[in-house]
Amino acid sequence: MIQAVELRKSYGRTEAVRGVSFEVDRGEILGLLGPNGAGKTSIMKVLTGYHFPDDGKAIVDGMDVTEDPLGVKRVVGYLPESAPLYPDLTPAEYLSFMADARGLEGQARKQAIERSVDACGLGSVYLRPVDQLSKGYRQRLGLAQAILHDPDVLILDEPTTGLDPNQILEIRSLIKELGREKTVILSTHILQEVEATCSKVVILNEGLVAAQGAPDEIGEALKGEERLRLRLKARKGGLDAAGLGRLLGALPGVKSVLRAEAAAEPSAAAGEARVFDAEIATAPGGEPGEAVFDWAVSHDVAILEMARHRLSLEEIFVKLTQEGGRK
Amino acid sequence: MKGSLTVARREFRASFNSPVAYVLIVGFLVFTAAWLFIIQAFFAVGRADLSPWFGIMPIVFAFLIPAATMRSWAEERRLGTYELLLTLPFPESEVVLGKFLAAFGMIGVALLLSLGVPLSVAALGNFDSGVIASQYLGVILMAAAATAAGEWVSSLAKNQVSAFIGAALLILLLVLMDRVGTFLHTTGALAAVFNWLSLSYHNEAFSRGVLETRDLAFYLLATTFFLYLTAWNVRRRKWS
Questions:
Q1: What pLDDT is recorded for position A326?
Q2: Which of the residues A30, A159, B57, B182 has the least number of beta carbons within 10 Å of its own beta carbon?
């Protein structure tokens, strides 16, 4: 339904999006996750035909956004960041303008407005000027406008900012419901939002895709990744940090060695470190602790400490976005 | 075209929802009437001629029109609704035309209400209604060109204030272009260029009751030109 192929977009000298590809099908909700400035909004602006990409392709419902922007605009419902509205119109006037703009007429027009107002709970403020509405109502009016013409594609830029927890739950369940028949892309920097609503995630950082897949897939690959923190003492000489790293890396069930270094040990003779700190990432499923234990016994290494440590989604996010940042 | 009308309707409604439109229209009517009856001492002169009244309009437009157009793009960008507007399924040119129609419509309301002046003095003397019609046509066309210029400045400006000042300066310059030429003692072809660019120079024939095709063409050309620049500007932003 939506395809982004190697999208690139710069604003002046800032490269906001630096080659992003992903795909979303009907019935899927894609979450664009990333810190501020990761390129989420820029990608959405391209997908809605508001901005043209510098390079790459964006295809929505079979239409290329640069070749048929009007066609794309017709099938897309868009909630821009912070739900911009005209302050001097009431929700009634605003939705009526949007209904005209979307070419709705007669009974269909009336029903569309009623449906959006109901779905977004706007009945009580329908005739109050927008500049008197709370942030929550404005956000809901923005959403009502986006779903007004029952679009096949919904693009929502931070749909739950400024809402209180109850409203957030309501909007999330509304999005999920819409996501059953439509294609939804939403952006957020809140991790729980992705876990709660999305069937697919693209984690962005500095304009690049840091990871993508189903939330549990990313979970498998990263969240399921366990780490072992070790403090080891070599009882025989001749083991250095690099050697230790190699040995640990060769053990079954060990995915990578994140760290292997001599620990600062005041009692050790200068030049010959014997206590090491190591951290290893292990493949999900196995019991790598056992392998480490066996290896330690056979090499006459004492395990001073061994701690298991599981990454939370927060840490995955921090890890992905900071590792990306160092490139 | 449907898109233009939708946009124009919303803008028009919004400007009459706020006091801006009323203040501007009343201000226009009061000032032009005061100019005619008090400063130009219309009754004391005792001539059945509204030229002084029409004559001041270009200068008044230089302030009225920027006030009508300053919101068009600058405000929309500040509010962020610009993005929404340009993701509606209309070509950019229709949005540009719609905004122009809304601002021009407000000027139109002001000019319509100004009919009170010729109607109220009509009984006092032997006015040439043909001349008045031609004078009206002249100022309407001039207003269209000035409105398009104001829209263009608004599409460039960051906020309403700079949109207003920029448009006021541009329209004043265009109105006074022929006098700038005279002031610089230009002659021959150069003077002709200054005159040709002047909004008020092309209004002279209209104010005498003469319809000249070249003047008509000039105003339509100027309007189209500025609207084209505006649309170009809006489209250019898609790439920035």
A1: 43
A2: B182
Class level of CATH domain A2-221:
alpha beta
Q: A135-147 vs A165-179: helix axis angle to the nearest 10?
A: 10
pLDDT in tens, A223-250: 556 788 889 888 877 778 888 888 888 8
Kindly indicate the confidence band of residue A187, based on its pLDDT and cuts at 50, 70 and 90: very high
Q: Give which of B145, B144, B141, B136 is closest to B209, Cα–Cα.
A: B136
Contact yes or no for A101 and B3 at CB 8 A: yes
User: Which chain A residues are Cβ-neighbours of B80 within 8 angstroms?
Assistant: 80-82, 84
pLDDT at A327 over 50: no
- DSSP run (H or E) holding A186: strand A183-188
Cα A232–Cα A234–Cα A238 angle in degrees, nearest 5: 135
CB atoms within 10 A of CB A109: 18
B1 to chain A, any CB pair closer than 8 A? The answer is no
The residue ranges of every structural domain in chain A are: 2-221, 225-310
**Closest chain A residue to B78, measured at CA:** A84
- Whether B20 has its CB under 8 Å from any CB of chain A: the answer is no
Q: ipTM score here?
A: 0.84
Quick one: how far is CA A297 from the chain centroid? Answer: 43
- How much is the pTM? 0.81
Closest to B12 in 3D by CA, of A97, A148, A141: A97
Verify whether the Cβ–Cβ distance B86 to A50 is below 8 Å.
Answer: yes
Residues B6, B7, B12, B14, CA torsion sign:
positive
User: Cβ of B86 under 8 Å from any chain A Cβ?
Assistant: yes
Element (DSSP H or E) covering residue A153? strand A153-157
> Which residue in A has a C-alpha nearest to residue B90's C-alpha?
A70
C-beta atoms surrounding B91 within 10 Å: 15
Q: Indicate the class that CATH gives domain A225-310.
A: alpha beta
Q: In the block, which residue shows the tokens 């739900």?
A: A83
Answer yes or no: are the C-beta atoms of A15 and A54 closer than 8 Å.
Answer: no
Would you state the pLDDT for residue A224? 56
Residues in chain B closer than 8 A to A84 (CB atoms):
79-84
- A2-221 with A225-310: one CATH topology? no
User: When comparing pLDDT for A241 and A27, which is higher?
Assistant: A27
Q: Give the pLDDT score at A54.
A: 92
**B14 at A interface, C-beta within 8 A:** yes
Domain locations in chain B?
A: 2-239
B78 touches chain A (CB under 8 A): no
Q: Return the structure tokens found at B50.
A: 């509204």
User: Least CA distance to A73: which residue of chain B?
Assistant: B89
With an 8 Å Cβ cutoff, is B84 touching chain A? yes
